[in-house]
Amino acid sequence: MNELELKYGCNPNQKPSRIYMKDGSDLPVTVLNGKPGYINFLDALNSWQLVKELKEATGLPSAASFKHVSPAGAAVYRELSDVERKIYFVKEDAVLSPIACAYIRARGTDRLSSYGDWAALSDICDASVAEYLKAEVSDGVIAPGYTEEAMEILKTKKNGKYNVVQIDPDYEPAPQECKDVFGITFEQGHNNYKITDEIFTNIVTANKELSEEARIDMKVSLITLKYTQSNSVCYVKNGQAIGVGAGQQSRIHCTRLAGQKADNWYLRQNPKVLALPFLDTVRRADRDNAIDVYISDEYEDVLRDGEWQKVFKVQPEPLTREERQAWIATQTGLTVGSDAFFPFGDNVERARKSGVSYIVEPGGSIRDDHVIATADKYGIVMAFTGMRLFHH
Question: 272 exposed, middle or buried (CB, 10 Å; 0-12, 13-18, 19+)?
Answer without folding.
Answer: middle
